[in-house]
Specification:
173 residues; mainly alpha; Multidrug-efflux Transporter Regulator, Chain: A, Domain 2; 2 domains; three-stranded antiparallel sheet; 8 helices; 58% helix; elongated
Amino acid sequence: MEGPGASGSAAAERRERTDGLLTTGDMALLTGNTLRTVRFYEEAGILCPDRRSAGGHRLFGSRELERLRFITDMRAAGLSLDEIRGLLETKEGASSGRQAAAAVVAAMEPQIAALDEKIEVFTRLKAELVRTREILDECLECKKLRGYPGACERCELVAEHGPPPPSFRVLWL
């Protein structure tokens, strides 16, 4: 199954409805979630079907699909369901647009700061892992059976790359 926000082949696999509404299965397929997750979000009150079919199936509009994509992305970014619910409900508790905007901005600031920290860690970790992979690519050609694994610490091919990154030392040395 494709990841969050997937639409290409996933859209072709789902049964098209003439009313433009989406079933729970469509919602799951288009967002990379499970049926159970979509149902859970509805039960938790953060997704709301537009209506039910004659057979009792939940039917969602495009606004709820967009909401589910947002929720999915926020969960992937590490927010708890309570934090997401708080963001989603912020506007409802305000008495004016100005008050709502101020509350939403205030609620988003810690999330933006947390994402900045995660991006910094992910960027550093990715660079470190890429360097580790480059060094290990050299190890793929290793024919030295003598002294393995202890000899890896003194290997000239590893030394040619300069000081190895922490992930290489942890994984290999």
